[in-house]
Structure formats: structure tokens, C-alpha cells
Design brief:
Structural class: alpha+beta
Number of strands: 4
Radius of gyration: 17 Å
CATH topology of one domain: NADH Oxidase
Helix content: 10-25%
CATH class of one domain: Alpha Beta
Distance between the termini: 53 Å
Strand order of the largest sheet: 1-2-4-3
CATH superfamily of one domain: NADH Oxidase
Shape: globular
Order of helices and strands: HEEHEE
Oligomer: single chain
CATH architecture of one domain: 3-Layer(aba) Sandwich
Largest sheet: 4 strands, antiparallel
Number of helices: 2
Amino acid sequence: MPATLRHADPRSVSSDAFPDAGAPAEKLHFLLNYAVLAPSSHNSQPWLFHLKDDAVALYADRSRALPVADPDDRELIMSCGAALANLWVAIRHFGYWADVETLLDPPQPDLLVPVRHVPDRLASSRVGTRSRNPHRAARNGEQPVR
């Protein structure tokens, strides 16, 4: 059964509400609020997350496929990848680690990726916004630091 998010609107979730002392399933459940904010083709949001214990599985929701605009489900899979990327960034932001397993021959055709929370493996520090490389040319009009 898909996990139900606690917040009616995931955009209203506050990082202050992260359950630091919670169980892995509770943490993953909270982090899914960030995963579902991922962009998707035609805003179809073609993903399902199944949460069980310390793991969450990402499934392609074929009922949200767009057979005319995306006959090969290429954009559907890319949209699911964006949701996975959001989940990964959220996990790292809160200082945790997760094992993400790539499935070349999944046991279920719509199962894309299982993600297991690794509670005893904290990231070295919480990840904030990405720092800029001072030697890289900026596209926003700023001059690189020299």
C-alpha cells in the first residue's frame, strides 16, 4: 500500500518537523514529502512509494502514463528519477545515508528502485545548499572569485 503523506500540502512541510529521534520508517515517511515535489512530465506525478520498515520502494505508476505524449514511457521513468533524486537530496540534507539499489531485472515490472535507510551511517554533516566552485564561470552574471 502506498505511504500516505502527513501533510495535505507537502510544500508546507518544515524541516524543523523532521523526526530526529524517530524510527527509520518515520524518517523516510517524512522525507517522502520532499520526494513528491519533484517535477514530472505534464505534472503527471507517475510514482508510487511503498514504505515498509526501514525501506521505501519507488514504483512507476502506469495508470498515470501518457500514451500519446510519451508512448515509450521515457518521460515517465525520468519523472520517477526526479522523485528519487529529491528523496536522495532530502536524506543527505538531514545528515543520513541510504542504500539505493539499481535493479536490472526487477522482480516486479514497475518496481524501479528500492531505497533502504542506513541508520548507523550518518553523513559527515548536514548538506546545505551546494557551494559554488570559485573557479567556474557563472551563468547568472556573477564573476567567479579569483
